[in-house]
Structures are given as structure tokens and as C-alpha cells.
């Protein structure tokens, strides 16, 4: 039922069932020092009538940026997005969007929020009211018409978001992580409702495009899944997902597909781009092309402990499920463990290495030493900082020095984040210290001295 | 159906009983409307400066009328400030090129001592309305406006800039028209800051109201004292007569005005604006207002809704041709560059021309050799500002912390202090002057006290706010860890109140510079006291009608304010934000 194929690019247009076509879209932001920061790299895809498409990727894969290009909210640097054959030069006229943070206006009631798109279209008050009423009923909000968003739970708020989008009867519905701000049960419930609406014969919207980092969500909803790789975002794989609805997550082939995608997203790609940093051998790579994962040392250590408690080997989807972690929460920890050589991923299974076992078993000082050694050897930014500090006379350098270096490959925020992670790691390993007042990094001579 | 829509009142009359609330609210609205119409007629009285001076009677029976006139002036200025804010703020936030010019201009405007505007405005408006009291009236309103508008505009501009991206995206995605975006998103999302700053502006405005009602007008180089009917001029007349009784009355009435507008207008507005809070969760301590509760229980909101709906619809239709709140994704970079070049050339040419004209004017009327002495004057006033800040800090930080740490005290004290901060300290000057004369204290020192009378409250007000926001956990920690008194202050309290203290300090310093213009030259009956300082220099220049001196003084004072802000306050503020924010 499932086929995996290499990314398709730029199919010939003129297909009347094609609603949105993205052809060779590249988006490049400019870093603070003027060098280009590619976010999307040559993306081509299309959205056809009658299908749900998922854009699946980790944070940093540019999936939200891609969605905003498709919505006509931002302009691609190169390439083109067209709606029904018309190239976009402004907000996409045929779509409505559901936002991760709901984006409701808190000073308007539920009904006024739902009516806003109709009002913008200049529809007469009476018709506006009737249509809003119908949308509110359909989405299960009746009785809440005159409530204000802040009186509602997250799930009900997102229902308002859906009602507001669907009431304008868009050709295609765009969704930006619509369920990720909700708790697991509410998200499941709302997903099911959405599918129920989608399967109704008179549902006016002809296609849906959802951005998500939740693998199961993508497999439950989508007919086609585009898996995006990061740095810069590119389509790694297009997966056609043909299970009949409703899909059963305990089904064997379902689980197999989830496993397969997990494998893809932990970097076990058959054709890994050279600079996917989890693939870099120890001692290789520069701080720019191999960014540190956004993981705290404590989080990574906790993951290793759980892994050891599970006998040293566990299926990633199961682990995520058990911890009620989402991919975006879990994978950076996995990345960190991998880069330090404390754990390895293989067939969507995470297993602890011998060093990992020693790390978990050791007492606090010993585990710090192991961590310090590993971080110096294998995390390029940590190594670079240590080396630079050693070359100075007094073992002191301002953070500006490192930020300047990082800005060549990262945006301002990312550069600061990278340095923050490195400082966190360096402090934990007592490799170097950072004085927030003076902004100075310094070699840690006074190891094992409790801070005040 | 159709009938009911055109006859909104019927529904109200049929649907429910008219309660006592409706009667009270209705009576209040009628009274206000009557007063406004009545006062409006008296604004444009014919007069010729110098020939038929408006006589300010010190008769007590006139006080309500004067109070109403002052109040009307304040609200007209506030309305103008609001309109200015919405237009200027939107332009600065939405027009890429305009932003680069409008924001710095605003920054300069807010550092100019406001009383410098007064003689300039007087001359201008009396020229425009030569035989009408309207000129004086507009000049006064303009000065109040300059004291109110800048911070409101900054607040609105910052709200627009900081608008959540996804709301911006939703507005574009759902194809709102320009007007819909402004009215449904831009204004509501800025409402809390806007209303708060309106309240603060109104508080600050009383000072300039009292200072701008009794003025000296220059006709052909001759200075003539003129007065507008109002509490400020009543006060001036009372002082000229040397009547304690009338001065006291003026002070009491002023307190009533300040407290009254707060209670009847701004508390309700602040409480109402809370519904525009952007965070999706309810705030813990919602501002409350009795007046708002009564209003909301009356039929006013319903009626207002019914009446305004057709207006809203009409506005929607009228503004539709202006198009969507959307911009093309791609613009021709060549066109853009050409536009930039033209824009900046024009800006450069205009500012160069203004600078050259200004320099020539100053050089011919005054000569640059005067500037060093101006700086000496400025240093004297600066010293006063520093001293008063130190004294205020030493007195009010301990008191404020004491109050702020006790929830009971701070609930009671905060509104009181706010009134004290809004009360125009200028009204107390006569008493203080009298004391100085009696005790033989030279104004060189006395002026510090006068400037402090108004400025100190900002420090107290903010310290209370800062101390009361110290989380309970930290307070309990201080107790359970048995911190010594010194430790508590050094390690918990002072760092915790630091951001609030800096805010108070900036405001207090700004207020003190402004106050120096009226504090370094005071009089009572036939006595006049002078202090050595820039405020005295500016006050003298404006009494003598020497514009060049006035402008030079204003420039130097602005320079002092800007320099101290840049070198001290902004750094402290940045430090407070990065290190001491709880």
C-alpha cells in the first residue's frame, strides 16, 4: 500500500486538478553579517484536489517557511508558487489557514471571530451570520457563539480557528501545526473530527495541506507525505500513504511506516547530505556545518538513564509515546547522545553504547569527566571554543568573538542559541565558564568548585 | 425585522424595565452633553489682546465654571493627542521609509521641555486668530497636547511593531481591508498600552494646563498678561491678590478634578481595556471599576452598540476602495532604490535647510559665544536635578518598599500616590515661596524643593509597583533563610525593584527638568525670587519675549536631557532588563 519514491520535481502544469503548484522554490534569508542563510532549497511539490498532503520535518527544516510561501505571505527568493495556474504576488486567494497558536482576536466573540473572513469579503450581515452559524454548528461550537476565546480551552479555541477557516469555503485549507499546542487526547479528538468533515460529500474544501513534526499525525491524516530534511530544508522523500481511512495506529503496516519515517528523520537516510551533522565522524566538521542540537545535558542524561533502564535498547516511536514526547522534543536529545557517542540509532531503535553505560553508571564527577572529554572531541563548537581559549594568554575571550564567527552561518538568534548550548555544555563539563556580566568566556581552572 | 433595525430604541424600551442605573447614567450623559455645548459656545469669545483683557474673577461662584473650562481643555487636548497618535503611529509603523524619519523626530520632540513650546504656540495661534480668544485657547490646548501626545504615540507605535506575527498573517490571509485591519486588529491590540498612557498623559497634563492658562502675550514687542478662564488662571489671580483662602480653594478643586477624572474616566477605561489583553489566559488581578460596572449594568452598552453598528457598516463600505491590508510580495528593486534615493535626498535637503536657517537665526540674534554660559546655567539646573533625585531616592525607596511589600498598604497607597503625581505641583509653589521668603531661603536651594514637589512621586509610585511585584516565593525565602536586613536589601529587594526604579527615575528627571522652568523663577504678591539656572533663563526669555534666547535655552536643555538619557538612563534600563527582570 505504501510506496516510497525520490522527490518528484516540477511536473508539467495544466492539470486541472492541481490547486497549488510549488516549483523550484528556494528561500534564503540574510545573516546579520550579510552572508546568505539558505532555509529552503529547490522545493517542488503540488497539491491536488481530493488529497491531504503532509509536510513533515523537524524544527529547522523550514516547513513553516514553506507553508508561508504557499500561503503567499512571504516571497520565495527563487522559484514560484502558483494557485490554479496563477503565480502568487500576495496572499493566496484560494486558501485559508489554521495557525498553531490559533491567532484568534481575543476581543472578539467566537461568532465575530468566525465572521471576520466573511466581513472582509463584504458579505451582508444576515448572510454572514447564517454562514457563521452553520460553520459553528458543524465544528461543534454551538452554544459558545458569544464566548470570548480566553474563556475557552485550547481545543475549543482551535475549533474556532477551523470554523473561521472553513466558513470562507476555501479551495484548499492550510494548517500550520494545528494540533501541536493541544494535549494528546484533545488533538486526537479534533483530528478525528477534521477527517469526518473531510469525508463528507458536500465538504467545499478540495484539498488540505498540513505542516507537522508529528510522524503519527502525518501518517494518520495524509495521502502523501513530504519528509523534509534540515539545513537547508529540502524534500528528502515523498511517501504515498494509501491506507484506507479510518487508519488504525496499531496496525502492523502503519507501525512499520512510522518506524521507517523515524529512521529517515534521525538521519539514517540512505543518501545523507554531507553536512547532516549526526553523520560527521568525530573530530570532523566545523561549528557552522554541524550545529549543536538543542539539548540540555540533563535531558540527554535522563534519556540515557531511561534507555539503560529499558535494557539499553528501545524503539524510538515507543520511547516517544511512553514519554509523551513529540519528535521535536525527543530528537534533539537523541542527536546529542549520538554526537557524543553515548547512544546510536539503528532501524528506528535507539541503543546505548558502552561509553553511554559507563556515563550513566558513573558518579557525578566521573560522568562530568566523560562528558567533558566527549564534548571536546566530538562537538565542533565546544572544541573550537576550548582551542581558542587555550591560544590566548589568560584563557579569556569575549562572547562577541564567537558570535561573529557563528553569524557567518547562522541568524542572530541561532548564533546566540548555539553559543548558549555550547556554554551550557562547557559549564557542565567544567571545560570553560562564562561571565554573563562581562560577556567573557574563560577556561575553567577552578574545576569542582561549587558556584555561588 | 427591518423596522426593528431602524428603530433601535424600541427593543430597549420593550425588553426590560428601566432601572435606577439607567436613570443615573442617563442623567449623567445629559449633564455632560449640556456642559459641553454650553462651554463650547464660550470658547470663541471676541477679544483683542491688550485691549479687553479677560478678567479672572476670584469670586468663588465662578470656580465651577473655571473648573469645567479647564477640564474641557484637557479633554480636547487628549482627543487631539489620540488622533495624532493613531495617525502618526500607524504611519511610523507601516511606511518603511517614513519610519526612519518619524521615530527619531518623535524621540527629539519628547526630550524638548514642553514649556518652551508655549510662547511659540502663543505667537502662532494669536496670529492666526487675531481678534479672538480662540488663539489663546488653542495655544493652551497645544501645550497640553505636547505634554500628552509623545508617550501615547510611542506606546501605539511599539504595540504595532510588536504585534504577534500570526495575527498579522491571519489578517492578511483573511483579506481584511486596510480599515478593517486598523479597526479590528491594530487599535484593539494596542488598546491596553494606549489607555494606560492616556491616563499617564492626563496626569502629566494638569501641570501644563495650569502653566498655560495665565500667560504673557507679545504684541509688537510689548508683553501683556492674558488669561483664559480656568483653574490655572484663577490660581494666578489668587496669587496676585495674595489670598490664602482662594489659593486653598484652587488646590482643593484641583484635587477634586484629578481624582474625579481618574475615578469617572480612567479607572473605567483601564478596566474596560483589559478585554484587549493578548495573552489568552485571564490575568490574575483584573483592574476593576465601580463606574464601569454601573455602566455595563445599564442599557448604555447595548444602545451604543445598536447605534454604532450602522456607522461601522458605513465606514466599512466607505473605506473599502482603499483596498486590502496587503502588499505585493515582489517589488522592483530598481524602483525601490530610486524611491529611496529621492526620499532621502528630500529629507536631507529639508533638514539641511532647517539647520542652516536655525544656525543663521541663532547667530544673528544671539551669537554662539553665548552657548558656553548657557551650558553653565544648564549645569546648575542639572545639579538640582541630581540632588533632588538623590533626596527622593533616599526618602521614597524605603517608604515605597515598605508599602509595596504589604498588599494592604499598597492597594490603598497606589491610587493616592498616582493622584499626588498627577496633581500640578505648581499650585503649591505660592505657599512654598511664602515660606522661602519668611525663612530667607534663597531660591537657588528652594528650587530643588519646588522641582521635587512634583517629581518625587514618580519614584515612589514605581518603587511601590516594583516591590509589590516581588513574588511571594522570594519573600518567604527571605524569611525562611533568615536573611539579615542587609542581605534582604542587597540581594533581594534592591535588585528586584531596580527596573521599576529606573523607570521612575527617568520620569522623575524629565518632570524635574520641565518643572525647573517654573521653579527657578517664582513670585508671590509683590515678591519675585530668582535662581541661577537654565530654567530661570528660559522663563525670563519667555517673559521678555526673546525668542532666540528661548530657542537656545530649549536646545541646551534638550541636549542635557538627551545626553543624560543616553549616557545614564538607557544603560541602566538595558541592564535592568537583562539582569534584574523578575
Please specify the SSE layout and strand pairing:
The complex is a heterodimer of chains A (452) and B (582).
Chain A: E1 2-5, E2 18-30, E3 36-48, E4 52-56, H1 63-70, E5 78-83, E6 86-87, E7 95-98, H2 110-120, H3 125-138, H4 154-166, E8 172-176, H5 184-199, E9 207-212, H6 215-221, E10 224-229, E11 234-241, H7 252-265, H8 297-309, E12 313-315, H9 316-322, H10 327-339, E13 343-346, E14 349-352, H11 354-361, H12 364-378, H13 380-391, E15 396-398, H14 399-407, H15 412-428, E16 432-435, E17 440-443
Parallel strand pairs in A: 4-9, 4-10, 7-8, 8-9
Antiparallel strand pairs in A: 1-11, 2-3, 2-5, 5-6, 10-11, 12-14, 13-14, 15-17, 16-17
Helix pairs in contact in A: 2-3, 2-4, 3-4, 8-10, 8-11, 11-12, 12-13, 14-15
Chain B: H1 2-6, H2 8-15, H3 20-43, H4 63-94, H5 96-111, H6 117-128, H7 134-161, H8 165-173, H9 178-213, E1 214-219, E2 222-227, H10 231-241, H11 244-273, H12 290-297, H13 300-319, H14 333-365, H15 371-405, H16 407-422, H17 429-439, H18 443-468, H19 472-480, H20 485-519, E3 521-524, E4 527-530, H21 534-544, H22 547-579
Antiparallel strand pairs in B: 1-2, 3-4
